[in-house]
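REVIEWER CHECKLIST
Item 1: Sequence provided? yes
Item 2: Single chain? yes
Item 3: Sequence as submitted:
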Amino acid sequence: MKTNYSLLLIALLFFTACASEIDNSLNAEIEEIESGLITTIQIDGNLPTKHTLSKRMDHYKVPGLSIAVIKDRKLHWAKGYGISNKVSNEKVEVTNNTLFQAGSISKPLAALSVLKLAEEGVLDLDQDVNTYLRDWKIPYNDYTKTEKVTLKKILSHTSGLTGHGFPGYPVDKPLPTLIQVLNGEGNTPRVTLDTIPGSIWRYSGGGYTVMEKVVEDVSGLGFAKVMHDIILQPLAMTNSTYVQPLSVNLESSASIAYNRKGVPIDGQWHNYPEQAAAGLWTTPTDLAKYCIEVQDILAGKDNGILSKETIELMLTAVSNNWGLGPALKWEADSLIFQHGGKNEGFTTELMAFAHKGDGVIIMTNADNGRPLINEILQSISTYYGWGIMEPTIIDAYQSDPEQLKNLSGKYRYNEEGGPVPDIEGEFIIEVKSENGKLRMVDPNGYLNTVLAQTGGLEFIAMDGGEEILFQKNEASSYSFLYYNFFQFDKVE
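Item 4: Structure as written out by the authors:
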């Protein structure tokens, strides 16, 4: 008996040591990814400067984010960073259970409801959707003489329906009904059909709102209830909901939204009655369950959320590398399904290999999350050898210090609107010459980026890849075009 106890103790010590070694190995892996961020633009021949994740969060004014990494069809690691709420006296840290608004990642999950109802024979993906709609219809017109709007066309953004996206509604404003949204009685134009269905690819959140109405009309239930019952609950996505506004009992688990300055938006976040298009609250860990389910079904899993045939149909490109819900990249064994998301104060990305079993989901609580997401994707892709995100290499250009000095100064944008929606009045950008390059900053805190010179008066932002073209006028002063659209004139 003593010998058995001794053997048991030895075994426990052995497995504890192994577990500790695995934890240390994984921690080292994560730390290398966290310290390997580089800008999306790199100059040929220069060694890239690596940044830590925390410093880049500060740089881009992203208060919090959450990451989940999938490896071999399993959740490999998940981690939260920064804070979800800095309005209250006590800062709340982001955890794996912090809810973020998914933005347009709501769409590929919402598409599962239609695919599920099609498998059950309730819906036909190729049927005219007007046969399912009850108290609202797509008007028949010259565009529908030969082709009709179908669910397959809606899911693949080839329906011809208008309405790219939705800004949401402040929490202190009443939400319009779905019919009011479709009729243009909310804060967006009416959803209409303005081209022959199937003739072009055009991203349409309006189409997904019509799809949401179809699901409600054939089920007799609210869309959030349908998604919970037939998709989210079976996938054990217990930290996910399409309920809008968010249930009071979940508010303490949700991150608030931050603008480009890293300042909370009024009311903490916006609400979205367009649930299928933009209404999902979730976590990267929960979204990983969706990705893994798709991967498992393709690998032969029985009794999945959908059949293998339906998943293969979902991941078959219809137009513009778009399937029935997700966007698609590459082919065969390297096929990737993906989708990005952007709601007011939230920026997100989901990307997964259909057959290789790997993937990553990144969710941020900031308007300026996209360039940071790209840098994180680069670091993760480099570490795991995925090849999904590589920096753009530009040729070195010999800058003239005197020219950089002449370009330095303050530039003003005076036209109504401006490149940043919540800027009022003058928008000033200062251009500085630093270490043989130009840096663009503004006092509002929206912009702080180094420019690499690519031509005589041509530059590119190292952070996001935006092109900036300087122009010299007759008075020997300068102006520049930002995003090739917004013009700033030198004032001093």
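Item 5: Key structural point noted by reviewer: The chain has two domains: 100-367, 401-490.
Item 6: Recommendation: ____
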